[in-house]
């Protein structure tokens, strides 16, 4: 399930639940506290990092970018 959510988040940001990165952090803590296996932790941590990297590398929509003014005249 984590893999499917992360893949959807990477392909289509709108197709994932809100705050997926935060939810994955919570799930990671829960798995650690419950003594979950390493493979589950690896999948969760990798997915979270991929989504974080993706969110940092996406530029804001062009409508929020203000063009520079020409002050040479």
- What is the typical, i.e. mean, pLDDT? 79
Number of strands: 0
**What does the largest sheet look like?**
none
Order of helices and strands: HHH
**What portion of residues belong to β-strands?**
under 5%
Shape: elongated
Query: Which spans of ≥5 residues are poorly predicted at pLDDT below 50?
Result: none
Distance between the termini: 58 Å
The radius of gyration is 18 Å
Structural class: mainly alpha
Helix share of residues? 55-70%
Oligomer: single chain
Helix segment tally: 3
Give structural notes:
The chain is mostly helical and 73 residues long. 60% of the residues lie in helices and 0% in strands. The chain has helices at residues 2-11, 20-33, 38-57.
Name some characteristics of this structure.
73 residues, single chain, mainly alpha, 60% helix, 3 helices, 0% strand, elongated
What's this model, at a glance?
The chain is mainly α. The radius of gyration is 18 Å and the shape is elongated. The model has no long low-confidence stretch (mean pLDDT 79).
Task: Summarize the helices and strands and which ones pair or pack.
Layout: H1 2-11, H2 20-33, H3 38-57
Helix pairs in contact: 1-3, 2-3
């Amino acid at each position: 399930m984590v893999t499917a959510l992360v893949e959807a988040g990477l392909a289509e940001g709108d197709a994932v639940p809100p705050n997926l990165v935060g939810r994955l952090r919570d799930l990671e803590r829960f798995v650690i506290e419950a003594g979950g296996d390493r493979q589950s932790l690896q999948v969760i941590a990798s997915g979270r990092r991929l989504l974080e990297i993706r969110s940092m590398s996406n530029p804001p929509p062009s409508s929020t970018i203000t063009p520079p003014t020409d002050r040479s005249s």
